[in-house]
Here is the input.
Amino acid sequence: MPIENIDTDQIIPARFLKATTREGFGENLFRDWRYNSDETPRNEFVLNDPTYSGKILVAGKNFGCGSSREHAAWSLYDHGFSVVISSFFADIFKNNALNNALLPIQVSDEFLKKIFAAIEKNPKTRLTVDLSQQNVVLEDGSSETFDINAYKKTCLLNGYDDIDYLLSLKDEIKHFELAH
Amino acid sequence: MQQQRTLFDKIWDAHIVRSSEGYPDALYIDRHFIHEVTSPQAFDGLRKRGISVFNPSRTTATADHNVPTKDQHLPIKEALSRHQVETLRKNCPEFGIELYDLGHPYQGIVHIIGPELGLTLPGMTIVCGDSHTSTHGAFGNIAFGIGTSEVEQVLATQCVLQYRPKTMLIEINGTLGNGVVAKDIILYIISKLSSSGATGYFVEYAGEAIRNLSMEARMTICNMSIEMGARGGLIAPDETTFSYIKGRRFAPQGESFDRLVEQWRHLKSDEGAQYDEVLTFEASDIGPMITYGTNPGMGIKVTDRIPALADLKSSSEQTSLSKSLAYMGLEPGTSLLGKAVDYVFIGSCTNARIEDLRLVASMVKGKKKAANVEVWVVPGSKQVENQAREEGLDIIFEQAGFQLRQPGCSACLGMNEDKIPAGKYCISTSNRNFEGRQGPKSRTFLASPLSAAAAAITGKVTDVRELAGAALTSNN
Here is the structure.
């Protein structure tokens, strides 16, 4: 999706935020871009086009701007994505993704262009993401490394979450609260 | 000697429970607000882990996003909205959290009620599962939006794990011109920085034009910090702040208030403190603003023209502009003045406080709305609604043909009954003009309450200065 500034209202429109569980949001991912007003699918939209498939979403810069709704990360994950690649992410979206086993990978503008070109040339091109090595490799062998915080990387690789860590600090927090 | 620090750094440092190399900081949270949309999964998480809320007295709940703005005494018609509000009604007492539900005199939009109840104070850390939490920063605190997993963290531990953002100082020098209000300042700044220009930063607003603003106007500024990507924005507290807080329902009273004010006076950036970025603007360069596109960075002075494709540097910017304008049904290089609008929405956490309503009333008093527009005035809280009625603003609105509704997020986000129909134009005092934000295929022009009121009278995009002449001075 070589579109810039994809906001969370596009990823999951507000009227679909009404569930009280984390599941099932994938159905409404990019709802208003995927379907016409009469609910018929828009065949030209990339997620409806069988030419494209995979677990990696590649998108233009400033992906995930707008609201703090974690539903945006849930809907991408629920739809089957494990990775989003862009040249820039909005802060809250990035945190939300990392808290939900959805890996946001920031690459350079040039490398993003290269990925889009490779996909345009061959929609079935293979993109390999290695979290432990922190790199993205294209089929022609060109690659770029990406940054991820060591703590978040450990969490993702081992399935830990922030609450496990914070709960381990509970006594310290109580102490802080008393003195605060 | 200790290094000079910014206000942001002082507050952040004072809330670190644990800072370990390679880990994000564990930050203690003084005040946590929740609403029905981003909290249910967090409560479920607590149940799954079998844990209780760490300190329920530091969390306050209200229902705002899903609520109708008419007939609030009746059950919510839409089943999913009703279920979400009912889930909040079940979760709050179960976990010992105070809820200001529909019908409660303190109910309202979460970012409106915190400040008006005196729950929002200088020097605090404040979070909420809502990106416009940045609003509270107007009181000189660190306030930012979080996701639901983080809401669960706060409920479970009263802390969030966060990386320290970079700091940015934005100074607005000089005094504002006629018809120019806080909303114009922030729309102007965002138009200069773009919708991602402050991503990774926490912004401090300063300068004469900011100092001269009322507390409610400062909230409008901080509210939209997120629209340029900033996690939050703050303004050092001063006498304006202290007098706003004094006597509010949950604010400290009497001697303890006076003692706190003495402490709060120290809440400012040290002389010579270093920011990662400093930007300066002149208030006299700012005019009444309006957005033409589908993100809040796409704004112009109402007297300017929409950019032409040739004005833009990169092909990706040109593509974005074409896509936005196709959605909006507008042409590049044209003026918006005189463009007919169908709806006027005055409300949202950006502009639904009593001063906003007064400003609108001052503009429309004795006038009638244009026949082609429908006008919704949605107060930010029950207290704002009651105040408006006490002051007789309801009569002014009624005579003008405006509908004064009941409090809620309303047409800001197309999640409740108040939606702008497909293809229709709405001039809105809210904060986002994304595609479909106000309802599927709706088209939004973001503007100030004054500009929205002017459009309500004329039925079209109007330079408020033309309509009201010299009568427009305010510190809003």
Q: What stands out?
A: Chain B touches chain A through 67 residues (CB under 8 Å). The two ends of chain B are 40 Å apart (CA to CA).
